[in-house]
Amino acid sequence: MTIIVTVIGIIAFAIAGPIIGCLLAGLDRIISARMQGRVGPPLLQPYYDVRKLFSKENASVNTSEHAYILFAFIFTLVAGGVFFSGGNLLLSVFLVTLSSLLFIVAAYSSRSPYSEVGAARETLQAMAYEPMLYLMCVAFFMASGWFDVAGVFFLDAPAITTAWLAFLGFLFVLTIKLRKSPFDISMSHHAHQEIVRGVTTEMSGPTLGLVEVMHWCENVLFMGWVAMFFIWSNPLSIVLAVVVVLAVYFLEIWIDNNFARVKWQLMLKSAWAVALVAGGLNVAVLAYL
């Protein structure tokens, strides 16, 4: 029965994830434009861009690049399906990590100097945020009593009440995961940073379109990770979680438009410091509660 529920969750996420993610990306562009004193594109502009990419001829430098991206996309869908079907949070994080590794390998496979630099930076980003993600999972387990996300609906109080330090640490590395300034050192989804897009420099056509859709799905999944801290047995908590998710997404857009890119050394040191202080301290306190 659990497998059936997970499969249904994967199918549902494969349909709803790109739709919601596309709307979030469009909202991102509009809000960013307004912050910069511009009108901005229409809400569905990300969809128009991706549709145009899929209509182009596949001009990948090698045949393996698209395969790596395809499997990275599949693992992202599985991660989202596992999470939103109430499955294991730790498994969802592992699958996202595997997807990130395949994305890095795809960039390395092109043998372009720009792509290789982007892949190296992407690897550094993964080294920066991964410790905090796993400490977040541990803190969530200690606060709720289980790794299964469905368990939040049986809690007497939301996990944020006892795992708020881990949540703050997760918000810090979320900026890295969403590829927002000041931590978008491997690539940026906006044109305000650089012409050469690092890790996706040699990707075009359907391959690049798949990367964009994968990014949409990742954004939806990460917002789901935010929401799980604010849901408990009260049905109205879902409304609270949605409000918090929108507020967090707006905060990330604001940060993206108000901070310049930092060096990778500062990103790595700050992310590990936050993981040690916020994640480590929260886990230590929960161990003695």
UniProtKB/TrEMBL annotation:
Pfam families: NADHdh. It is found in: Membrane. It is a multi-pass membrane protein. InterPro entries: ComplexI_Subunit1, NADH_UbQ_OxRdtase_su1/FPO. The chain crosses the membrane at residues 6-27, 66-84, 90-110, 131-155, 161-178, 238-255, 267-288. This is NADH-quinone oxidoreductase subunit H. Keywords: Membrane, Transmembrane, Transmembrane helix. GO terms for cellular component: plasma membrane. Its main location: membrane. It comes from the Bacteria. Signal peptide: none annotated.
